[in-house]
Amino acid sequence: MAKFNQTAVYINSRQSKQRAYILQRIPVAKPNESFYFNHGPFRVDVFCLHANDNAKHVYTASDVSLHITNKRLILVSQSASITGINMFNSCEFQLSEFQSLKTEMIRKKKIRLEIRTVDGGIYNLEIAFKDKKDASSRRDSLSEYLKMATSAVISSNQHTHNWYSLGTHHHHEELPSYLEAVNDTLYIAPPAYT
User: Fold this and answer.
1) Which of 21, 46, 77, 93 suits 101 as a labelling partner, its CA being 20 to 30 A distant?
2) Is the pLDDT of residue 189 over 90?
3) pTM over 0.90
4) What is the DSSP letter of 87?
5) How crowded is residue 93: how many other Cβ atoms within 10 Å of its Cβ?
6) 166 or 152, which is more confident?
7) Those residues with Cβ within 8 angstroms of residue 175's Cβ, 6 or more apart along the chain or in another chain
């Protein structure tokens, strides 16, 4: 499920080529979270349709940075002021809640993401790259990083699910030694041994 305007951010300043200071809103990392992709500026429209309510909601932001981590897809508005009912400061998706992700290239400087979540939500993100000169390479890079991050999360979830679905709920004190795990057919090696 998408969370709007709930992402914790900090302000970072950097000096531009014109010697003016630029303030950037950066998402705060959660424990054990690594950032893979940080880019902007983008224009983003988020179309939301949830299974429980057939109404379509549209949210938009025109100066957005996009961040992909090993846990989340995060959109953060870099605009100094947010005006309008359907504007957002931030929007984040937990990658572990993705049921499916489809990407579609639209013209040279746009990409559309269709995200379906495990709770029945359908989200279409239309992302337009503001910098036209390297838009196609950045679009391809974004697509690759999304595939990498979601594949890693899915693989991790399947591995954890398989481990726990086998009925081998060992507590730390009950874990077999390495030799027991390797030689005894009663034990299935825990993730640390595989």
Assistant:
1) 77
2) no
3) no
4) B
5) 23
6) 152
7) 190
